[in-house]
Amino acid sequence: MLNYPEAKFLNESAPLEILAELALAPSLPRMMAVEFQRVALMWALILRQDQYQLPLAEALIRSRPNYAAALTAAIAAPTAEERYHALMAFTIQQPEIRPYFLAASGRAVPDGKIDDYRDNFWSPYRVGVDWYGDQGAWNACPGSPQGVKFRLLNAVQKAEGKKEFAAIQAIGSAADFYGSYARSRADHGPLLLDHAIRVSRYSRVPPSAEKKVIELWQMLMRKYPKSQSAKNWQSGYSYNRTWFEASEEKGLANEYNFFPGVACRYTSYF
To answer: What gap in Å lies between CA 136 and CA 150, rounded to an integer?
Structure first.
């Protein structure tokens, strides 16, 4: 587990060059290495830094064998472009892979799984104390175990870290990032649209992002109406908007279906 100063430094100051160097260092404890490799891989995908994607994928196979099947296929891709898309198809299904470090251990959820809170995919990184619980909330955590010792950054590294941090902040949430990616690849089959809708289903999507999620659903239903992916979401899903509003009201009055014109088979609250 990283303490607060370490997490803040890594998220807001360290460039991908440093994150990748630390992620690939053989001296890191295994669980800390997994976290560094996940975050660095996500940065490499967001920033389209292809030169880091292959070594990080290879390192993750060694430290997280349950990723081996998907990552081995990505590593075998004949071009960097194909490897990028294979890695995106992998990470879109893995809510535990996010582009920032937590100053806490986080919730214990098996890789690729959703827990009862149903908010497992990453939310936007925000400097300071965040508006939601443990994902990206940088509260000081005294007494945490000794973490990684960092060397001072030079001026070039500081500038690059600042630029990359701004890019990470600009992408917003997992729902924003993967939603945009799925829309850009919609002609390549229904699975990415299916996965992107799942990301939004199991994220804390604010009302301002609802329109984009509806567009994903409509695209899936229009382009691939007979696919299993369309069947997966044919009844939409419901959510409780009071999660984002300052309302104390409860019950059906605040329960919405994300997708218009369909009746929900079930109702559920985050």
So the answer is: 21
